[in-house]
Amino acid sequence: MKSKKGIIEVADYHQEIIQGKLNKGYSQSSVSSYKASVKYVKAFIRHHYKCADLTLSEIEYNFILEFERYVKGHTECNQNGTMAHIKRLKRIIHFAIENEWLDRSPFLRYKAKYE
Question: What is the DSSP string of the chain?
Fold first, then answer.
């Protein structure tokens, strides 16, 4: 199945859902953390791909590596902060898989490295 949904579209929808679960499974800090991660994904796509969104099928292993590099180079995040943003991106990707908008995860070979 090839979904025409974009990663930003899915991230925004995921954001709406967790916002609706505020104090019912998600704390304000979790909601704020997801907002920050989505903000970084949006900025990364604009910077690296020169567009507003990418279809889910365009999100591949290299996207994760480049996003990691972007967060480290363009934000104040240290290694563990960067890994937290990647972990939230992974949850958004898995949300897309659960909704059958994406067949497989680009995270299969990716290993998060915490300090």
Answer: -----BHHHHHHHHHHHHHHTBTTTB-HHHHHHHHHHHHHHHHHHHHHHSSS--BGGG--HHHHHHHHHHHHHHSS--HHHHHHHHHHHHHHHHHHHHTTS-SS-TTTT------
